[in-house]
Amino acid sequence: MKFNIFKSGFLLTALAGTLAVSSCKKVLDIEPESALTAAQTYNNVYDADAAVLGIYGKFLQLAKPYVLLNELRADLMAPTANADTYLQQLSNHNATEDNPYINPAPFYEVILNCNDVLTHFDKMLAEKKLKENEYSQRYSDVAAIRTWTYLQLGIHFSKDAKGTVGIPYVTNPLTTISDVKNGANLQYLPFQQLLSQLIKTMESLPTLADYSTSGTTLITTVDQYPTNKFFINKRVLLGDLHLWNAAYDPSSYRKSATYYKQVITTYDNDGNDNTKKNYYKIIGAPDPATGNQLAVQYVRYRESDINNLYESNTEGWRSMFSRGKVSYDAQYNWEWVWVLPFSSNFAPKNPFIELMSPIGGSYLVKPSRAALDAWNSQTQKNFFPYDARGSFTVKYIGGQPVIMKYLYYALDGSSFLPTLNSNGRNGEWWLYRAASVWQHFGEAATRDGYPKLGYSVVNQGIRSAYTPSPAPSNVTDIQNTLNLPEPYQFDARSGDNPNFRAIYRDMAGLRGRAYLNSRPLVTADSTREIESQLVDEAALELAYEGQRWSDLLRVAIRRNEPSFIAERVYNKLIKENGGAAGTAKDKLLAGEYYLPLKWQ
Asked: Residues of the chain whose pLDDT is less than 50?
């Protein structure tokens, strides 16, 4: 494998392995045309940075399987008439072993590359080629990427062709793809054991902090792209791990919520920087300066005119999926926690154009009828009978519904013509954003015994949920959760007698930000009902961002209730063609959630 030099020192390059080149032959089982030895490539912190960027270059190749496995197997995405048999199989839950979309090899290529880099980082530290703080940040970052990749394998795969339960868990840098395929001397971990191991790994990392803004070449701006959102947020990952693990150990709910809270409150006490204080708040109130937010909003005083809905690359809820096309401004940073870019100038190319676009792509997947019905069954506060998030997420091109979320970088949002200077290939892969962190926080809080807080997240926010009716003029003892234990304390007070302007006063909740009324009041089992509300709201807010199958599966496992996932998949398939619906439902009701671990 050649050691590649990145254009502008950045990471989006055709070679996804700028790492310990001496072991590239082992990892990828190919003969290198020319190679540099480890002694030539691991000499200083700049070489370490190149290795980190190489890992992310390889990691980008998981974007396509990540979205397909998590969305097409669930209830919001369906194959089009253009889709091949293998995409149809994913949707119908009858994937055969030769299905290329279930090949685990790309995931293990990332893992083996991570193993190799981590070993060389250990050597660099021992040889004093890296300072302790340089080592801590880079080692923790790469280890977190490996952990995230293992989590995805655990979510989707169960056992290999020999019937061995679990997935191969490898940390040995000398292991090759061939070794993993053959199962030679490998440890197989069932999902519960895998989660325990991944949590142990993450909680023993040298640091959970983001890269420092000084003293590193990794935090910079290249071609107007700021790299500060490029690197995995380790606290969100730990929150997710504990949220899954709570099905086996309920004490993990509070641990999960604690990690999410650390992300939500990252900038709460950032001095007088009001811009940063808005990070991750899900704000719905209009911005006095611009008149709009990352919310479903209409021009003020014209809320009854459907033509005055904010929709552009820089205005309204839809703009969060295209703001970076214009500028990575403050509001972009309010929502996005972890984003990876695709550029027409670098490989790997953006896979979502090919999958989703009828213009410049093959239009292979589309929104399911069940998803469209869910958006169309909502009512806005101005009585318009649809959820505007659906009209932003999906557009009709040539009479066909198109998942537009991923296409705004490449296509104009109105004319659907390719945008200038994009070559139709620019875009982003979204992994974590404020809405998903809050949704999972609400899930953890609800299960930990605080369903009212979960209700506030899914509906109109903390201030609304904790304001009695009628509301007193003195809000000193309301509009907050300061009487709850941490990590559940939030101050959302806004009053004038005495004066309060607390930091969470504008936190609008998922439906508040979407300009929708609250879901029905809980009547019976508040924990289960609010948990279901959170999952159903996530379908409207986070559709096609790679979270859906995970959300459904996690709740089904937690409740020991296969129908939670089976009914939703069945409903999708019935509305599409019906042919495979019954078989898929029976399979899922039997708890057969997983794909075979079949190498190709």
From this structure: 1-36, 422-423
